[in-house]
Amino acid sequence: MAKLESTFRNMVLVLTSITLVAAVALGSVYNLTKEPIEASKRAKRENAIMEVLPPDVSIKGADTITIEGMPEPFYVYQAYAGDEFVGAAVQTYSKNGFSGEIKVMVGFDAKGNIINYSVLEQKETPGLGTKMVDWFKTEKGNQDIRGLNGAKNNLNVTKNGGEVDAITAATISSNAFLEAIRYAYGAYSQNYDGLTGATSVEKEVAQTN
């Protein structure tokens, strides 16, 4: 086989061919992994919804809620025990983590009290910011946010005048986490009567607070 002449044109052709082959290979890998990754995210989201809400509830599909100034929407999953509205799970986020975006699923009861939370995504510093997975539902000091209400409680770290103890040596991560919680409450409560199907008593509580 004749040796390809070393010219600029031939070098460009060879490099272009290599680039095309690499692009096709990367595209194939992406297509193979895209669906499993999406399936894994869906399963994690569904498990998180169940984790942050009372047992034996049925979920009404997601309401998409926008908050002024925020680049992405929030998702509210209404929960019912039979025909009775019992709360909702809110998929929320903050862009201000130490290492970027944090995504959290937060459960609220019908009066807006936090039931539980589950961290969906975070890239915080191991051993510091990553402690958010359990820190804010640990019954120690003022760490536990369960039972708090965005209308009644100051969901900021104590250093900033709030009621919640920050993760030791991870104030930025703590601030971002609590910001996501506040946004979750905002998404849940801003259209409380129209979106959640709350009873008249619950509407009055929400409006009063």
Characterise this structure:
With 209 residues, this protein is an alpha+beta fold. It has one domain. Helices cover 39% and strands 23% of the residues. It has a five-stranded antiparallel beta sheet with strand order 1-2-3-4-5. The longest helix is centred in the first third of the chain and has 45 residues.
Widest sheet, order of strands:
1-2-3-4-5
Low-confidence residue ranges? 194-209
Order of helices and strands: HEEEEEHHHH
Return the structural class.
Answer: alpha+beta
Helical amount? 25-40%
* Backbone shape: elongated
Number of strands: 5
> What separation lies between the terminal Cα atoms?
83 Å
Q: Averaging pLDDT over every residue, what do you get?
A: 85
% residues in beta strands:
15-25%
Keywords: Electron transport, Flavoprotein, FMN, Phosphoprotein, Transport
Organism: bioreactor metagenome
GO cellular component, one term: plasma membrane
InterPro entries: FMN-bd, Ion_transpt_RnfG/RsxG
Brief rundown of the structure:
The chain has helices at 8-52, 132-135, 171-189, 192-196, 200-208; strands at residues 58-65, 74-81, 84-97, 100-109, 114-121. By secondary structure, the chain is of the alpha+beta class.
Q: Which short descriptors sum up this protein?
A:
single chain, alpha+beta, 39% helix
Helices and strands in order:
Elements: H1 8-52, E1 58-65, E2 74-81, E3 84-97, E4 100-109, E5 114-121, H2 132-135, H3 171-189, H4 192-196, H5 200-208
Antiparallel strand pairs: 1-2, 2-3, 3-4, 4-5
